[in-house]
Design brief:
Layout (H helix, E strand, L loop, with lengths): L3 H10 L1 H30 L10 E3 L9 H18 L2 H6 L4 H34 L3 E3 L1 H25 L3 H12 L1 H17 L10 H12 L20 H20 L15 H24 L2 H23 L6
């Protein structure tokens, strides 16, 4: 599983990033409460104190960007190793691929989860000390942010196991974050333009349409960057938890099976190059077609946008996927 020798190597290699991530994740939750308390004290210093309320509301706090350290850690643990060419050295050590990936993955996972649990404890103690009038979404938000930040970390780690450089890792993770939209919503919106209809007309009522739309929205990993999930069902968090497991399995299998000699290329598995290029061109055609249509609400603009999208999609995919970066 996790090897102590590899663990020490990863710690020495990424010590600064790990320590900064720990500090940020431990302090983000408590600082959100301290910030609210200082704002309340500042309000009391003014004349109209009857309007001052000490309320801790986790729908708006400093924890909205807790997913960022996980992304940075994943890039440092895999993407930067590929870009700098040091991954070849690690693979030459007397460890199998499974040990290398497990050590890297669970080191970052431990930092993300344990640091935020410590921050949760500090925040709970501050709430006992400050004794605010009301506290909204404390447990739900604290647990949810841990789950979502771990999901983001797992997603970027999976992307790093598939790709040959840091740029490709981030771009693949971002694309996967909006992939449900690209597969479902983008083609449907284009069909609405071509056949002149609205998708909600298929449903018996607007309520059922918006209900399905809201349900499908939470299949997008990128949606969880916003904190709108706080006001909906607490069971929504099972979705990013399941995504985390899925991304972990994808990363683990990819790291074990894919070659390492394609460092610098976009994908380590050469067979992915052509299918992904075709998808990029298709998404470019559909996306630019929508943009062209929205500019003038005309079919001519729609067709012109599709032509531009095809050209842009081809060149972007060609130079990013088939051209090797220096390592």
């Amino acid at each position: 599983m996790v090897d102590r020798g590899l663990l020490y190597r990863e710690w020495k290699q990424n010590q600064v990033v790990i320590l900064l991530s720990i500090v940020f994740l431990v302090l983000a939750n408590p600082l959100s409460i301290v910030n609210t308390y200082l704002s309340y004290q500042g309000c009391l210093d003014h004349q109209y104190t009857q309007y001052c309320n000490f309320i801790v509301n986790y729908k708006s706090n400093l924890m909205d960007i807790n997913w960022m350290p996980g992304v940075i850690l994943a890039v440092c643990l895999l993407g930067m190793e590929r870009s700098k060419g040091t991954m070849d050295f690690i693979l030459s050590l007397p460890y199998n691929r499974s040990q290398i990936f497990q050590t890297k993955f669970w080191l970052g996972g431990f930092v993300i989860v344990v640091s935020q649990l410590i921050g949760f404890l500090f925040a709970w103690l501050l709430i006992l000390v400050y004794n605010p009038e009301h506290v909204y979404f404390f447990e739900h938000s604290s647990v949810g942010v841990i789950v979502i930040s771990f999901m983001a970390y797992s997603l970027v780690m999976a992307a790093g196991a598939l790709t040959g450089n840091a740029f490709a890792q981030l771009l693949t993770a971002l694309s996967a974050g909006i992939l449900p939209y690209l597969i479902l919503a983008l083609p449907l919106t284009n069909l609405e333009i071509v056949f002149d209809f609205h998708i909600y007309e298929i449903f018996s009522s607007m309520e059922s349409y918006y209900g399905l739309e809201n349900a499908l929205m939470y299949l997008f990993p990128l949606v969880y960057v916003s904190n709108d999930w706080l006001t909906n069902s607490k069971y929504i968090l099972f979705i990013p938890a399941a995504m985390s497991i899925l991304f972990y399995l994808i990363g683990y299998i990819s790291f074990k099976k894919h070659p390492s000699e394609r460092n610098g290329y976009f994908f380590l598995w050469k067979r992915l190059d052509r299918p992904v290029q075709i998808l990029v061109i298709i998404f470019g055609i559909l996306g630019f077609g929508l943009f062209g249509y929205s500019a003038g609400h005309s079919i001519i603009g729609y067709i012109f946008g599709m032509i531009i999208g095809a050209v842009v999609g081809f060149f972007v995919s060609y130079f990013s996927i088939f051209k090797k970066t220096k390592v």
